[in-house]
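input
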Amino acid sequence: MGKNLIQQRRGKGTIRFRAPSFRYIGEVKHRNFTEAEKGAKVAGTVVSVEHSSGHYAPIARVRYDDSQEALVIAPEGIRVGDMLEAGFAAGIASGNTLPLLQVPEGTLVYNIESSPGDGGKFVRSTGLSAKVIAKSDKEVVVLLPSKKTKAFNPWCRVTIGVVAGAGRTEKPLLKAGNNMFKKMARNKFWPQVKGQAMNAVAHPHGGSRSSKKNKPTIAKRFASSGAKVGHLRPKRTGRTKL
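output
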């Protein structure tokens, strides 16, 4: 009889495996502009730099001149009281947000939109930055931190600079408990153990006593789909006849 693996049960989206998004301070994305603001710029003041359990990077809370507030990914070197600009006419300075159309080649950017208006999808983690390497009327080519190049719509917005919090991964976790809480904050699947070490209810390979955890790595020829667990049945076993 087949059974659902823990990976499959998590994929159903039940409350038991849902991320604790009620603990997050809010959605971090570029501010949406009105038609009148697209051709100009709006200035804002950093009122606080906060931590969100749903983000690795520090989050800056910006209050704009029109009394609107927005959460943005903090650039390196940001401080409370700094002035940031956003819009088509914003200056080329760290923390300012503007379309790729206005960014010179060779500039370091982060929080790049995949399509105009989506708020930012690429290069958002601590210490990361991308570089604008080529521009044309139809697209802007950006070198991503993975060393791959990607073409974006010229009207996709970006933030100038480098994401704050570099060096986060250099501090060792020291013990499994620290890694557990790190994964729990964003509901990551951890720890991942082999099926032979699980209980019988959790995996087709589980359920044996600790001194006898060996099971064939080859699925039975007539096993049900739930018992195969990704293994392929070999066409031939044993010694080859000459």
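quick obs: The beta strands are 41-50, 59-64, 69-73, 83-87, 97-99, 108-110, 130-135, 140-143, 149-152, 157-160.
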